[in-house]
Amino acid sequence: MAKHQTRQNLVEGAVVLTGAMIVVKLFGALFKIFVLKQLSGIGAAYFNTSYTLFTPIYSLALAGFPTAVAKMVANFDVQKRYRDIKKTMRVAKILFVAVGLLGSLILGLVAYPYVTMNSMEGAFWATVAIAPSLLFLCVTSVYRGYYEGLRNMRPTAVSEIVEVVVKVLVGLVLTWAVIQAGNTQFENTGRVFGQAAETAEAAYLLIMPYAAAAAILGVTASTLAGMLYIALRHRIRGDGISKEECAAAPKPVGARSIVKSLVKIAIPISLGAFVLNLATLIDTMTITNAMNRAFTQRFEEIRAIFGSVVPKENFTPELFGTFLYGAYSFAFSIFNLIPAFTGIFGKSALPNVVNCWTAKHQEGLKRNIESTLRMSSLIAVPAGIGLSVLAKPILTLLYSSQPAEVAIACPAMQIMGISVIFLAILTPAFSILQAMDQVYLPVKLMLIGSGIKILVNLLLIPTPQVNLKGAAYGTLACYVFIATASIRMVRRTACVKLSFTSMFLKPLIAGVFCGVSAWACFGLLSRDIPQTAAVLAAVAAGGFVYLLVLLLIKGVSKQDMKMFPKGEKIAKTLEKWGLIG
Question: Model pTM?
């Protein structure tokens, strides 16, 4: 395959990843929805507790790796140093396999003290079950970064699809099988996995740790499948760099130099990603501990606040806090969808920004930065506002069989809908800063933001009238600060004048109209038609109004539209009607 055939520009690469992301997030949402339906509040708390420990450690070990490889490969590609590209791949695999083994070992060793510290002993087996995935993801990240640096997003896209399909199939089947086996044992013997259970509620509590571990095993199996796919693809199809190009390239640099460069790039990026994911870990550690502290003195008062929605089980204060945290985690199954979509623009933009930054091409740098942030805003603003105004109907639609969890998660989701706008924008902004060699800046911003979140959480969560909403307010305060500061630093570092009107103001204006129309539509239709139909109609109405207002205020640029397939023709039509900037 000729090398030039794999090259994709910013939007072409983003389109490839977006197509994959739609599939990934659809299946991922189905996985979360059906797993949480099977686990309910207590099991969801165990599942989320293990996953929130895995995520920052995964980020620390892995997030910087594909970015470091992609950045080095992109730099070598500009210089036509194809032998350096090949050597970077070989050295990175050895280095990152070692890191993956170490990360898996660390995760296994800290599992017990972590769950004990958070009064979540039932999450132990789930935490252990996810440890091997770090090794698999380390290997996968090398291949993904390699192809992304060559501006070929397809291998990453397909490997992500393979992962999510395996996760859904294996995770759901294993979870169902464990729950069925536990219930059957209880009905036949009065015991669950070797432990006596006097009531069905007691049996449920004994089953949940193993059911959560089964769900997590689906995640581990998926990372193994993704690794096997992309490794085999590379072996069979290669990377598009011809033997002639390698032969004509200069002699490669030494392995020590490559390792030094990889570590220099990866460590600050990994630290930034680690701190970025600290928000959920902070929630895990502060929600349960803050609620338990409040329960010590004001349990009955807090119990009364949730008295109309909690299940009938007579939970102890500790189990009640676990249930509340598990219900709160229902909102995160939706919260993380939007940043995943906007993150692909940052990933696709990285090699393009690197090229412009290296070549000191200011106009191209400005164009790529504005396009990346504008497209992120165009997705994040309406989606975030929509989640906020339709929080209850959306949660009810997804988790109709868990009314208690929905009622608890809804107030937090309304706040988090606004938070997600800022999170979705800062993710690609971090990629841009990293591409411009500001690798330590995101770390500093995230540390300050995390400090803000910890402070707000500890102040607000123990207050009975605020309770779980305190964590949502902490998340909002954290991401508002980081997003605004990161955009300011992007502008200062790039030394270009950015159009804030086109990037943020126009999407915000259209987003407000979108939210109002969706809220009004649901309010009117929900009285006369089934709620599911009303939610879908409200989403459709909000989307239609958003696109209409966006075109009327010329919120989409001609340059952006030209980068899409057949975008030239669409741009001409919209320009003729005066609907494009």
Answer: 0.74
